Amino acid sequence: MAGNGNVNGEFSFGTTTTRIAGTGTARNGLAKIQTNKKTNGICHDDSTPPVKAQTIDELHSLQKKKSAPTTPIKGTQGSFATISEEELHKQQLQSISASLASLTRETGPNLVKGDPARKSETPKHVSHHHFTPAFNVSDSALKFTHVLYNLSPAELYEQAIKYEKGSFITATGALATLSGAKTGRAPRDKRVVRDETTEDELWWGKGSPNIEMDEHTFLVNRERAVDYLNSLDKVFVNDQFLNWDPENTIKVRIVSARAYHSLFMHNMCIRPTPEELENFGTPDFTIYNAGQFPCNRYTHYMTSSTSIDLNLARREMVILGTQYAGEMKKGLFSVMHYLMPKRQILSLHSGCNIGKDGDVALFFGLSGTGKTTLSTDHNRYLIGDDEHCWSDNGVSNIEGGCYAKCVDLSREKEPDIWNAIKFGTVLENVVFDEHTREVDYTDKSVTENTRASYPIEYIPNAKIPCVGPHPKNVILLACDAFGVLPPVSKLNLAQTMYHFISGYTALVAGTEEGVKEPQATFSACFGAAFIMLHPTKYAAMLAEKMQKHGATGWLVNTGWSGGRYGSGSRIKLPYTRKIIDAIHSGSLLKANFKKTSVFGLEIPTEIEGVPSEILDPVNTWSDKKAYNDTLLKLAGLFKKNFETFTSYKIGKDNKLTEEILAAGPNF
Ligand SMILES: Nc1ncnc2c1ncn2[C@@H]1O[C@H](COP(=O)(O)OP(=O)(O)O)[C@@H](O)[C@H]1O
Ligand SMILES: C=C(OP(=O)(O)O)C(=O)O
Ligand SMILES: [Ca+2]
Ligand SMILES: [Mn+2]
């Protein structure tokens, strides 16, 4: 994409010669410099009054002004006392000091607002911290920790570029960062405190993502994180919201050590208005992100230097030993997978969009199957790309931003995501030209999992507020690297539940070398890494909601066709988009269908814009025996995976449970 920066194609310089407009073209050498004499003979420079400053410091002080106050007087209709700005800052610092308090040394750290680099800022708004007996004083109590509270993207850019190695501004204005040694999530290091309550409530044991730890170990790690954060000169604090459903909003606080993490969460969570921030109060949930600092391997339960620890009773999460920002967003998603079902609300690992006529579609799928790509659709409004809730009121996005994969990103295929990569967007682990700062999205030198995190309003047709009515279509995405699943199948309710509980995708190994066999992955509810309850709990809720609201289920293969990985090829994104278009418009529902053998899937015989022969995968394989063998192999893997679920009842409906058990492959 190196070039003249002509992004929208409307205008182009024919040659590079007209750049110095009005000074005559400069085909040979530099343009002649002309003074800007106007025809009336007055020199432009002389017409401007001189700068209103006597000294350079004074000049600099003129540059910045204080943000306008937001809620001037409280209680205009009531008798509430006005709280001064000073008092408000004091309260905020006390709240943050309480968050950061050591559990053994009683009081929180000495906090002061603002950047420590700005020496002129005297420690005003000190959080009052009384340490009376001298024997109780620790070194950390004698120092100040500066709090950078809900900074703006511009301020966070400056912090990142000044203090964090590997931070750069790309050609389109995004902030390129490095997440360090970890460039993806670490599910083996995600632990959940098992106590009397969670013991009964949560899903434990085989297949569960919840690796247990005890309360004491959590506190050891929490203290480690808090001590690390307090030892720094400054910490970033974000106070934000989750869930666009106003009745079920959760207040979250993220304490972190890096501007990268603060900007990432600024983008990913819902951003409070200045007024909402003033009234924020105590958070419902707090993350302590001490990702640069490892956990201690001598600590009980620790198996590596990384630990992501969730304590539902304390409503806290501690991150040690990984700077991958996705841990924060997906960690909070786990919390929602616990809190929301308690309120009869279904949490969904899905993208979501809405058509002009108000038809909502959900896109379930594991990482890399197309939730973000397919929910970001220029002809529809984006509700969200990854995490949603389905309540009696309809759907709501949990987040305030999107987190798109960038590997091989192209302007042609994914224009809206491409254009969202601009000022404010965090670009993780990408490679760029050191001079032009143009990003090379094909370069996987750092990792294959390159990512862009941007506020949802960077997508031009985002639906704000990010809520919608009950879904009409539930699309299950599977990237089948075996190449035997049809590009699209219509599912009955039992099949939808079977495939939802199975949560199949098959990916090819991260490295290209020597990949012979696609790796089948089964991840219950298309997000086993994030669910907290048994999969059948979520499945029962989904079945009930789909039945009640008459939603249709679809299985879409965004993976291989014409052979498995290595011999076939990935289904072209434009074809998948046509398939999705036909689902949205309702035309696919009216198509003629035939049933496949083994999986018993209903496949359409024709879709506008898609070659008919690819709709039945058997047609695309030249070696029919290889197709059949591969089909049976995959069917066997499905069957084996489902064995663990055969003893469970799904909801109260015996009949549905039986139908679900019968909805898998038959051979
Ligand atoms: N037929 C297809 N359908 C969907 N995505 C495809 C297809 N072919 C290639 N892709 C690529 O696969 C990736 C899907 O990733 P993404 O949408 O970010 O997944 P998720 O949000 O589910 O983790 C994108 O990089 C996209 O360009
Ligand atoms: C952030 C993630 O989500 P996804 O790949 O589904 O976008 C992840 O799994 O780490
Ligand atoms: Ca995604
Ligand atoms: Mn996701």
UniProtKB/TrEMBL annotation:
CDD domains: PEPCK_ATP. Pfam families: PEPCK_ATP. GO terms for biological process: gluconeogenesis. Its EC number is 4.1.1.49. Residues 115-124 have a biased composition (Basic and acidic residues). InterPro entries: PEP_carboxykinase_ATP (IPR001272), PEP_carboxykinase_C (IPR013035), PEP_carboxykinase_N (IPR008210), PEPCK_ATP_CS (IPR015994). This is phosphoenolpyruvate carboxykinase (ATP).
